[in-house]
Amino acid sequence: MSDTPTFANLLTQWRTSDSDVRESVYVHLRANPAEAAAVEAFLRDDLTNPTPWRRVIAAEAVVELYGDEDAAAAALAWVLRQGDLPAAADSVAVMRKLATGRAALLVSDFALHAPETFRALPAYHLRWAGETVVRDGERGAEAWLTVFGHAG
Predict the structure, then answer these.
(1) Which pTM value belongs to this model?
(2) C-alpha distance from residue 31 to each of 6, 26, 34 (Å)
(3) Dihedral, CA atoms, 132, 136, 142, 146, nearest 10 degrees?
(4) Which residues have C-beta within 8 Å of that of residue 12, sequence separation ≥ 6?
(5) Alpha carbons 109 and 80: distance in angstroms, whole number
């Protein structure tokens, strides 16, 4: 990425590249708050995109750049309820960036709406999921029962 990428270049890299390239876009935008503000509406538009993977990367962007966990959690909840298995699996990396309470509710949704994909997650993600729901206090017990009942 050049030192002064165009908005179109930044957004193309963000939308079409892997997580390492997206992270370099986030680094650039965090270092240039005016540019981050200029692309915010475009990034947020994808929070309601009908394509699940686009919502996942939009959720990642709003957490990384604007700290908006509520918007990210809402987008991820929609993705998990669609049953798009690859997007559900990809959403775990974003869920891990959220506060425990938000993440625990999403883990519960994941186990409820995509149990096969949830069970197929790597062990380190499953450990994180279990720890997250247990640490969520009283709500964690309910989330744990949902996870256990649907994902085994």
Answers:
(1) 0.86
(2) 15, 8, 9
(3) -10
(4) none
(5) 7
- Which residue bears the tokens 């309601």? 48
Quick count: other Cβ atoms within 10 Å of Cβ 131? 14
DSSP string of 2-64, one letter each residue: -SS--HHHHHHHHHHS-HHHHHHHHHHHHH-HHHHHHHHHHHHHGGG-SSHHHHHHHHHHHHH
- List Cβ neighbours of 141 (8 Å cut-off, separation of 6 or more): none
Instruction: Give, for all 152 residues of the chain, the pLDDT tens digit.
Output: 445 567 777 777 888 778 888 999 999 999 999 999 999 999 999 999 999 999 999 999 999 999 999 999 999 999 999 878 899 989 999 999 999 989 998 998 888 888 888 888 898 998 898 889 888 877 767 777 777 766 66
